Amino acid sequence: MGYDIALGMAWEELERLGLPSSNSISLFQDRYEIKQAEREVLLLPGRRQAIEMVSVLLLHYLIGRSKKGYEPAGEWISIKETYGGKLFCSNFSRRAIRPLAERFSQSPEELVKILLEDFAGRMVEGADVAVEVEAFPGVIVRILFWRSDEDLPADATMLFDRALAQILTMEDLTVLLTILADDVLEGSEQSSQ
How far apart are the C-alpha atoms of 169 and 82, rounded to whole Å? Predict the structure, then answer.
């Protein structure tokens, strides 16, 4: 119900753009089918209806990519550096970053394991731990993690290529990164059971 207006506007924009009536797209480790005629976003393979937040994100990504294309600029930025991001940064940090930092403060190797195994991530240089995962095809998110020490608590951040902010709004980007954080935390709970 809360996403009805955003979904309606996105479906109408897709129709105006004349994109294929059916698209398949990956978001992290999941695959979705987007069916314009039925106005459905289905999670594959079981073809369950995707949650509205994910549906809006996927539709906005398709719209943005078809309008502007996506060519990585090679410059990593955080939410704070997007238009309006400074105002929303503390909420995003409280909702996504802090839980990651707190959960893995004593075991960053578990974070790495989840990102490598569950998200097909790859280790890169940076911070105490740095892993890149593919959000959408060809769209990379970099997770940086710093271990706690006697002076500072553990910390984390998520970066993405500046060009992604040209096709997704700050709100869409926070949804994207929050989905990643939630999925990683869920993977952590499942591995500890």
Answer: 8
Residue 48: CB atoms within 10 A of its CB come to 9
The residues that bridge with 75 in the sheet, in sequence order, are none
Is there a cis peptide before residue 108, judged by omega within 30 degrees of 0? no
The four Cα atoms 156, 56, 4, 36 give a dihedral, to 10 degrees, of: -170
Give the C-alpha distances (Å, rounded to integers) separating 43 from 85, 100, 106, 128, 133.
30, 25, 34, 35, 20
Using a 10 angstrom Cβ sphere, with 0-12 exposed, 13-18 middle and 19 or more buried, the burial of residue 50 is buried
pLDDT tens sequence across 62-72: 999 999 999 99
- pTM score of the predicted model: 0.92
Cβ–Cβ under 8 Å, residues 170 and 84: yes
Separation between Cα atoms, residue 187 and residue 44, nearest integer Å:
19
* Secondary structure (3-state) at 25: strand
Pair 159, 56: CB distance under 8 Å: no
Cα–Cα separations (whole angstroms), residue 135 to 28, 43, 61, 106, 164: 5, 15, 11, 26, 11
What confidence tens digit (pLDDT) does each residue in 143-180 have? Answer: 999 988 888 899 999 999 999 999 999 999 999 999 99
Three-state DSSP at 192 gives coil
106: Cα within 13 Å, side-chain hemisphere: 2
